[in-house]
Design goal:
By secondary structure, the chain is α/β, with parallel strands linked by helices. It contains 9 helices and 6 strands. The model has no long low-confidence stretch (mean pLDDT 95). Bound molecules: adenosine-5'-triphosphate and magnesium ion.
Amino acid sequence: MIVGVLNQKGGVGKTTIAVNLAAGLVARGARVLLVDADPQGSALAWSSARERDPLFPVVGMAKPTLHRDLPSLAAAYDAVVIDGAPRANELARAAILASETVLIPVQPSPYDIWAARETVELIREAQIYKETLTGAFVINRKIANTAIGRDVAGALEPFEMPVLDAALCQRVVYAESAAQGLSVAEAAPASEAAREIAALVEEIASRHARRDAA
Ligand SMILES: Nc1ncnc2c1ncn2[C@@H]1O[C@H](COP(=O)(O)OP(=O)(O)OP(=O)(O)O)[C@@H](O)[C@H]1O
Ligand SMILES: [Mg+2]
């Protein structure tokens, strides 16, 4: 499985989701590679901040040839997660083309919802060359019991792209764990954050299993 986490908007949670998704797949027994496709190198910085043994290797591949270079590397893993750059350029195109599924993190704000259009268009463009490519929104930084938190799925409907049931709420443990190079499941195993990441991993794994069976 190759999952890209992309959105040309900055700060929406791409790296947070990529790192925790990779850790969650490892917890399910998969051999995982995390590809940092962002020249900012945030996923690499996360792994450098880590004092414990690595959960999975992190490689920097912020290259417009990623879709050509990745397959030979990916063969040794059950799952590859790509942390994308906040750009809608050739790096984003390569990361999308390298993926089987693209997750688009969006925060429940109208600006984020409007800004998702560019990433959705890049996915549509890539689907012309790669029919099997799928995309899905992941709602991040939801604030529990707010109208905007509830309405965001409806606001995303015009994009005609699925919205995952699993959503992440605004929780300080996402930032605190990242500072130590840990996943939320490692930093706070009994937390709500760990539970919502487990649900996200489960939903992605079962969507992937259905896709393989089709
Ligand atoms: N659900 C959340 N709750 C609290 N903080 C969060 C959450 N998701 C992300 N953050 C924090 O928001 C900031 C931006 O998140 P992150 O770096 O994952 O976004 P990004 O899309 O990768 O950014 P960039 O576009 O710069 O690569 C980070 O400080 C992160 O810790
Ligand atoms: Mg990032």
